[in-house]
TnsA-like heteromeric transposase endonuclease subunit (Streptantibioticus ferralitis), 239 residues
Amino acid sequence: MDSPTAVVSVRSRNGKSVEDLSWMTASVDLLGSAAPWRTFRWYRGQKHYSGAYWSATMRDHVIYESRLELARLLFADFDPSVHRIVAQPFLMKTVVADKVRKHIPDYLLITGQGPVVVDVKPRQRLSMPEVASTFDWTRRVVESRGWQYEVWSEPPEAELENIRFLAGYRRDWLLSPEILDELRRADLDGVLLGEAARCLPGWPEIHVRAAVYHLLWVHDLHTELSRPLSPSRVLRQAA
């Protein structure tokens, strides 16, 4: 099936202007610097939990409109291949079966492997005809220029909880640079997570433990995240 031709509307960073462009010619730089197309929706009794997450990748806040979108944000912020995160990056318009269709993707991720357009949707809603149709034509449009399209649903619970926990240590300015440097020089490959906090006896254990968690967040250290973190988890140093 041929890919439909699409137009994207992009809101400038200052929010004062909108530019309409062909999808095939809209530059990565323009889309990557766009302001969110929608603003927050706050109303009494709303079912969605909107908010703003401070992203270590962006060094700024990124908005989300549901807890599931926040989960995808956490995974993107934790992913070292992601260099930029844009929420609600553009309004995409096309014609499908002689009808005008519109869609606002949830995120645009600029990665080392190329741009990724992301839609976040609970797994139970993916089979709904309207949702399936929208994601089908969106995928065809996105992939028509060699970009990746992703529909993201509920992640493994243990992995999400581990990444959410490590995100509490993402702010590097709250940690001691001296402790981080010493930990990077230490041989922690094969050391148990519970023992790593005691590897620098000259520093308070609580501060060393926080620095170890930060090094896990930035991938200088690795450990198994598919199961709940525990003191018995083995650390591995980045190659």
